[in-house]
Amino acid sequence: MTKNTAGTGLRVTDLVFAHIFHKRTADEVATDYNISLAQVYASLVYYYQHKAELDENIRQQIANVRKAKEEYSSGQPSLLS
Fold first, then answer.
1. What is the value of pTM for the model shown?
2. Which residue of 25, 31, 59, 81 shows the fewest CB atoms closer than 10 Å?
3. Confidence of residue 41 (pLDDT cuts 50, 70, 90)
4. Using an 8 Å Cβ cutoff, are 58 and 14 in contact?
């Protein structure tokens, strides 16, 4: 299950990707996603409180993207089949 940031439809993991992996500051994330700084911090708090579960979710998202890229580059339809 993926947790959404309250009232936005954004996944907590989307904000974690931006902040941790893309090295965006909390202020930049708030601006990038047009949300409040409080929403960014609340999402990060939630992430750190549920880190193991959300890290597994992130690993699965990365694996899914890699699989789709491999299937696409080999000419096999992946999302439409």
1. 0.74
2. 81
3. very high
4. no
